[in-house]
Design a protein that fits this description.
One of its GO terms (cellular component) is axoneme. It is a single chain. With 251 residues, this protein is mostly helical. It has 2 domains: 6-142, Adp-ribosylation factor-like protein 2-binding protein fold; 164-251, no CATH class. Helices cover 44% and strands 10% of the residues. It contains 8 helices and 6 strands. The strands form 3 sheets. Strands 1-6 form a two-stranded antiparallel ribbon. A two-stranded antiparallel sheet has the order 2-5. Strands 3-4 form a two-stranded antiparallel sheet. Helix 3 runs antiparallel to helix 4. It is globular, with a radius of gyration of 22 Å. The two termini are 20 Å apart.
């Protein structure tokens, strides 16, 4: 679980009043932040880089504490930066936590789950031990599988400095075919079925992504499968136009 470090932890644990008026929108913003690639990716990269230090044993080494402090500092800095992006001060966030969470039990649970538990060293150690074990399992699984031509080509390209290679990706939907398009498209317009949607304020994370259009009118649900012959980080954004079908980009 990714959670907030000591500064924000103290904000949630014991706060002194403030002006929370006009910050009702902050609930949705915080939820979107905690699920966004800009939040998840740096924390995942940290865990990937340092989980190898942690062993599943009772002994707690000094380097564990140093790593824990660095992680808490990273989480604090990330969260405070996201607040400053929307001109919310730490004092306003404290006031919001004190006065704005009473009627939002779900958000309160999310904050406690994701922003407080990292302050506990044993929770952090358990997370890193599990992360390291998961990486080991994935590596062992990849070694046990026969290498197909596309994977071999990608591996050879990775060994050559400055080289790159395109590998085939397939995308399937249980209710029909899908079509592909590379972002950004001409004049920021994506043709989808019988309408043209213009996307505004597209986040940087979407730039360069592969977009797809699939059946959604008669069959609004189904199983979507992304198949890659090599390991890849996948960030998924989906359109949630609602009954008005007016378009929109959502994570």
């Amino acid at each position: 679980r990714f959670v907030l470090g000591p500064a924000a932890g103290r904000s949630l644990a014991g706060m002194s009043g403030g002006d929370a008026d006009g910050l009702e929108w902050l609930s949705d913003y915080i939820v979107s932040v905690l699920k966004s690639p800009a939040w998840v990716a740096p924390l995942a990269q940290f865990c990937d880089a340092y989980c190898g230090l942690f062993e599943d044993c009772e002994e707690n080494k000094l380097e564990y504490t140093i790593c824990h402090n660095e992680f808490r500092r990273l989480v604090d800095d990330l969260f405070l930066a996201h607040l400053l992006d929307v001109s919310v001060t730490p004092a306003q966030f404290q006031a919001f936590c004190e006065h704005g969470l009473a009627s939002n039990e779900a958000l309160h649970h999310l904050l406690v789950e994701q922003l407080l538990s990292v302050d506990d060293f044993l929770n952090f150690k358990a997370m890193m031990v599990k992360w390291n074990a998961d990486l080991d399992r994935r590596a062992a699984l990849e070694l046990s599988q026969p290498e197909d031509p596309a994977t071999a080509l990608a591996s050879q390209a990775a060994m050559a400095p400055g080289a790159s290679v395109e590998v085939p990706l397939t995308l399937q939907h249980s209710s029909g075919q899908v079509s592909f398009l590379q972002w950004p498209v001409t004049e920021d317009v994506l043709a989808w079925h019988d309408r043209d949607f213009t996307y505004k304020g597209v986040p940087d994370e979407v730039l360069g992504a592969v977009l797809f259009a699939g059946p959604h009118e008669e069959v609004p649900s189904g199983t979507l499968t992304l198949v890659s012959p090599v390991a890849a980080n996948v960030y998924v954004f989906f359109e949630n136009s609602g009954p008005r079908r007016d378009g929109g980009l959502a994570e």
